[in-house]
Amino acid sequence: MAALNILTFGASRNIGYFSAVRLLEKGATVTFLLRSPAVFDEDKLIQGYVKSGKARLVKGDATNEVDTRRAWDAAGVVDAVIFSVGATQVSFSIFKGIVIEPHNVVTQCILSVLCTMPTYADAPQPRFIAISSIGLTRSAHAALPLLIKPVYSMLESPHRDKLGLERTLAHCAGWTWTDKEPTADIMGEEWMQRKGLPAPGALEQVLVVRPALLTDGECVADQVAAKGKGRSYRASAEELGAYTVSRKDVAHFVVDALARWDEFGNKRVVNVGM
Q1: Based on the number of CB atoms within 10 Å of its own CB, is 228 exposed (0-12), middle (13-18) or buried (19 or more)?
Q2: Which CATH number does the domain 5-273 belong to among 3.40.50.20, 1.10.10.10, 1.25.40.340, 3.40.50.720?
Q3: What is the C-alpha end-to-end distance of the chain, expressed in Å?
Q4: 137-176: buried (b, 16+ CB within 10 Å) or exposed (e) per residue?
Q5: How far apart are CA 107 and CA 157, in angstroms?
Q6: Contact yes or no for 101/88 (Cβ under 8 A)
Q7: Listed residue (216, 215, 249) closest to 234, CA to CA
Q8: Tell me, what's the pLDDT at 1?
Q9: Residues β-bridged to residue 268
């Protein structure tokens, strides 16, 4: 893979972070928009890339268009965007299950990012990879293994937000939307008329990744490659009925998909799981 210029949102931890590290190790330049760049103060690996100029840390909130525009400007002409924003304030309610605050942070971040995306006169539109979740829609939930369905039933709050993410991308990519419409408290009033939002079909290179239930395990794909045997994660546009997958394996897929864009790009959704 040729060295890429990457812009990340939500990469202070988890899938976004592991994806960024893999890309940096391959020679990419990565720009991070971070609420608090201090999150990397003790991260010797990232600090090494900051000193070499390969990692750029931009302070800002991805729900704020002023901040997302500064991130785009700092990154310059980018080859790809990795969007892995997730809620940082999570609680549990016996009646509502997992509850996130703000309840629409992912949706509002993707709207802000897309509304400030520049138009490149002499370069192609960047490839766009967004991390969503398996079990999100009616058909996806139906395909889940029976034993794990109760877990997903507790994820109504974060899944409402992820549904807003996917609805926004479907609108801008010009994809047919057959699921229920997210509510106005997730999307915002008249969100389709929001200034700067790409018109239907204008977002040309999109991949939505739906991981199974995430774990903190090691990257099985790396272990399989090292040993030359074993079973790695599965990735398919079809429903997988998968149980779990490690965040590091999803990051492996993200980087692999960028290298194999003709195979995975614009597939709309790829489910990843063991």
Answers
A1: exposed
A2: 3.40.50.720
A3: 26
A4: beebbebbeeebeeebeebebbbbbbbbbbbbbbbbbebe
A5: 12
A6: no
A7: 249
A8: 59
A9: 207
Return d(Cα 211, Cα 170) in angstroms, integer. 18
Q: Which structure tokens are listed for 174?
A: 């010009």
Whether the pTM exceeds 0.90: the reply is yes
Query: Residue 38 pLDDT > 90, yes or no?
Result: yes
Task: Give 54's contacts (C-beta < 8 A, 6+ positions apart).
Answer: 24, 27, 28, 29, 30
Domain range annotation of the chain = 5-273
Tell me how many degrees the CA angle 107-111-113 measures, rounded to the nearest 5: 115
Kindly report the three-state secondary structure assignment for every residue of 13-50: CHHHHHHHHHHHHCCCEEEEEECCHHHHCCCHHHHHHH
Residue 30's closest CA among 14, 3, 7?
7
- Phi-psi map region of 180: left, alpha, beta (phi>0 left; psi -120 to 50 alpha): beta
Q: Please name which of 201, 209, 194 lies closest in space to residue 254, comparing C-alpha atoms.
A: 209
pLDDT in tens, 228-263: 877 789 998 888 878 899 999 999 999 999 999 998
Q: Say if residues 102 and 143 touch (Cβ distance below 8 Å).
A: no
Residue closest to 267 by CA, chosen among 205, 213, 212 = 205
